[in-house]
Design a protein that fits this description.
The chain is mainly beta. The chain has one domain (19-157): Beta Barrel (Porin). The chain has one helix and ten strands, in the order H-E-E-E-E-E-E-E-E-E-E. The protein has one helix at residues 3-9, and strands at 16-27, 31-36, 39-53, 62-64, 69-74, 80-90, 95-105, 113-121, 135-141, 148-157. Strands 1, 2, 3, 4, 5, 6, 7, 8, 9 and 10 form a ten-stranded antiparallel β-sheet that branches. A hairpin with a 2-residue loop joins strand 2 (31-36) and strand 3 (39-53). The longest helix is centred in the N-terminal third of the chain and has 7 residues, at 3-9. InterPro entries: UPF0311 (IPR020915).
Length: 162
């Protein structure tokens, strides 16, 4: 079978998404860590916050725990790479470790590009399925209203959501 026939037989399936949670994450002042080989480095402390369940995801709500941090690199091309590591405690007591890797491009108009891939490490049990999913995220600044960011997390799938 040639490539054209193969691609006709297996057409693309558009990904679908389902909102899992929206988090409001309180952050501290950005700390300058100096220039490294890939650009200017910063760290932003994560002070806490709350997260709220998306539709039909009732267990995904609770507190963002303090103690995490967002490491940032401002690349020479002006793009920011963020690598945040923190914990969220769900209402059932489970503690989720979140790694959120974000690309921020301030040059896009009319609104900046700030999208991410979120990895969740969850304990076995009710929320263990999060360990087996690709989660896409978005990031919005809540400034000047509050020193916080709003993070939304979506489960990506190739099966339409019911």
């Amino acid at each position: 079978m040639n490539d054209a026939d193969l691609l006709t037989r297996f057409p693309p399936t558009n990904p679908t998404t389902r909102l899992l949670w929206t988090a409001i994450v309180d952050v501290g002042p950005r700390q300058d860590l100096g220039t490294g080989p890939t650009g200017q480095r910063f760290m932003v402390p994560i002070l806490g916050g709350q997260f709220y369940a998306g539709p039909s995801c009732d267990a995904l709500q609770g507190q963002v725990l303090s103690g995490g941090a967002d490491r940032q690199v401002l690349r020479p091309d002006g793009v920011k790479e963020l690598d945040a590591l923190y914990e969220m405690q769900a209402s059932n007591g489970d503690v989720l470790t979140i790694r959120n890797r974000v690309i921020v491009d301030e040059t896009r108009e009319p609104e900046r590009y700030a999208m991410s891939v979120i990895s969740v490490t969850a304990p076995a049990g009710d929320l263990g399925w999060l360990n087996r999913r690709l989660i896409l995220g978005s990031l919005q600044s809540a400034r000047p209203a509050r020193p916080a960011v709003i993070i939304r997390a979506w489960e990506a799938d190739l099966v339409p959501q019911a």
